[in-house]
Specification:
This protein is an alpha/beta fold. The chain contains 13 helices and eight strands. Strands 2, 4, 5, 6, 7 and 8 form a six-stranded mixed β-sheet that branches. The protein has a two-stranded antiparallel sheet with strand order 1-3. About 2% of the residues have low confidence.
């Protein structure tokens, strides 16, 4: 049975999808404004909203424990969450936070800058204007995508640094042989998500068609009256064999997606959310990684996903007003 999504998670979903104003979140979710303001304040500080249990026993914060906390936080190449450090030092995550702040640490999130060229901007604007006329009800669309996740990179997205004038050491980018890698294909809709497809080999046109064959039945069951299907325009999706299959089984219900537009697709927000959740556990094996991915994927019910689909008109509006540049999603 899918568990009910609590208020904290609902707020985090909207916050991570780019909606950061407490009043807007409160209006959409009907959660008291005072609670939303508190949750948003914590999220902006890089803190987790999860209610995780830990031993209520009080531990004396000795100088040795303080040194151990600082030593673990200072490992820039292996950033860890407050809860992870707390578990390793046998104290609460709040105690870890108090120690780090007292020692002059601040939390910084890693950021990426995306630059979209003029041609891609024109295509994005054209798409936004065209799709607004074609699709009225975003509740009848499957957004699909593949992602890859290295087992060695399932780490927190930010870190605590002692000197706020210093820049965090960037995580190394590995090329070639470096541990194990898992590929994931998923699709989400307003009514929920269909089961994940996990595989370790590189995706090919043949593999992609096999995935669609397996998942098309599930999509038809969820939307017997019909639906639109979205995937990006990667070379595999545009291959002749895939296009032939798509034309035969999806008719004219496939959305022609613009290049360089992950910010327009809600499933990209879902991948980011799932990676963040998985990273908080720092899995050590592929089976553990698979278990965590499936565990969090099962939480994607209609209540969880609705805000992402409701945001589509606003995303298109922002693309047009931003002249095709990246939007805040």
């Amino acid at each position: 049975m899918t568990k009910k999504i609590d208020n904290k998670t609902r707020v985090q979903v909207l916050f991570e999808s780019g909606i950061t104003k407490p009043k807007t979140i409160s209006d959409r979710t009907k959660i008291p404004l005072s609670s939303v303001e508190r949750y948003v304040s914590l999220l902006k500080k890089g803190e987790s909203l999860e209610n995780k249990s830990y031993s209520p026993r009080k531990h004396t914060i000795t100088p040795q424990i303080i040194k151990k906390v600082i030593r673990k936080a200072n490992k820039f190449n292996k950033p860890k969450s407050l809860r992870k450090i707390g578990g390793e030092t046998k104290i609460s995550h709040q105690s870890v936070k108090n120690i780090l702040e007292k020692e002059g640490f601040t939390f910084q999130r890693t950021k990426k800058r995306v630059i979209i060229n003029n041609q891609a901007r024109k295509e994005r604007i054209s798409f936004a204007k065209r799709i607004k006329k074609v699709i009225i009800d975003w509740k009848h669309i499957f957004f699909s995508d593949e992602m890859s996740i290295w087992l060695s990179r399932t780490k927190p997205y930010g870190m605590w640094i002692q000197n706020k004038n210093d820049q965090p050491v960037k995580k190394q980018e590995y090329i070639g042989k470096h541990g194990e890698k898992l590929h994931v294909w998923g699709a989400i809709s307003y009514r929920g998500a269909i089961s994940l497809d996990l595989f370790e080999e590189n995706l090919t046109a043949e593999n992609y068609i096999n995935i669609l064959k397996k998942k098309r039945r599930l999509m038809n069951q969820l939307y017997p009256e019909g639906y639109y299907f979205q995937h990006d325009n990667s070379s595999i999706h545009k291959s002749q064999s895939v296009q032939k299959y798509i034309k035969r089984y999806f008719s004219n219900k496939v959305i022609d997606w613009p290049s360089y537009s992950p910010d327009l697709s809600p499933i990209e927000n879902i991948w980011a959310w799932i990676k963040q959740k998985v990273s908080s556990h720092s899995p050590q094996t592929i089976p553990e990684l698979k278990r965590l991915l499936r565990q969090y994927w099962k939480d994607l019910n209609s209540d969880f996903l609705a805000p992402y689909f409701d945001s589509m008109p606003e995303r298109l509006k922002q693309v047009i007003s931003n002249k095709g540049a990246k939007i805040n999603y």
